[in-house]
Amino acid sequence: MIVLGFDTSTPATAVAVRLSDGTVTQMRDDPPAGAHPGHATRLLDMANELLRGAGVAWKQLDRIAVGLGPGTFTGLRVGVATARGLAQSLDVELVGVSSLQALAAGALNADAESVVLAVIDARRGEAFAAAYATGDHGFMHELASPRAVPPEELAGVLAEARQAIGSERPRWLAFGDGALRFHSELHDAGIATAPVNSPLHRVSAAYVCELGMSAPVIGLQQIVPDYRRRPDAELALEGVGTAKSVLR
Q1: How many domains does the structure of the chain reveal?
Q2: Closest CA relative to residue 40, chosen from 29, 26, 56, 52
Q3: CATH of residue 229
Q4: Fewest CB atoms less than 10 Å from the CB: which of 25, 60, 78, 171?
Q5: pLDDT (tens digit, 9 = 90+) per residue, 36-78?
């Protein structure tokens, strides 16, 4: 199976191609701090470059896997809309993958004995977080489901994970741009954060492909962004409506 996978849940644009023999090639675009993400302008160009380099035509794809989030609203909309458009035009299978799970997959592949707290910066002073461990037969096991939380509640996610696993493990690690942003709160909760320069803090499209290999194929219209909270635009409109009602 040839799989094209990509993730746009963070400011980065990550794309990978997994060939039938398991070979994976990948690219990513990480904008400088404060720069506008290049999801809309870079995603298709990167995918085309990877496919051309692998000697694969678009029509040879068997499946497209897309990171559903949670993550940035605009990025997720671009990624999911692109994935749905490609799947429909190419008539190939489309599957969705949790971006937090893809983040955790890279960390667990590097250290299967750890319990991993995957944390993506959610802006608004919050984090998207979920906890995972390697379960029976090497499969990933979700210990605490994805949610949006303020940093002081990250300890609660860890507590839920500890209860779910039923025993202490020697190593708990946090990964992701949210783990870097809220490292002080994680430290206070007894969770170590991977070194700042670790590539495992970035969502890897290679693991989007890997998880996408076994993800269930569902209807195209069911592939939607996993926001985990209400969009900024919706809250802003609600705030305007509330203000108008007060002024009447």
Answers
A1: 2
A2: 29
A3: 3.30.420.40
A4: 171
A5: 999 999 999 999 999 999 999 999 999 999 999 999 999 999 9
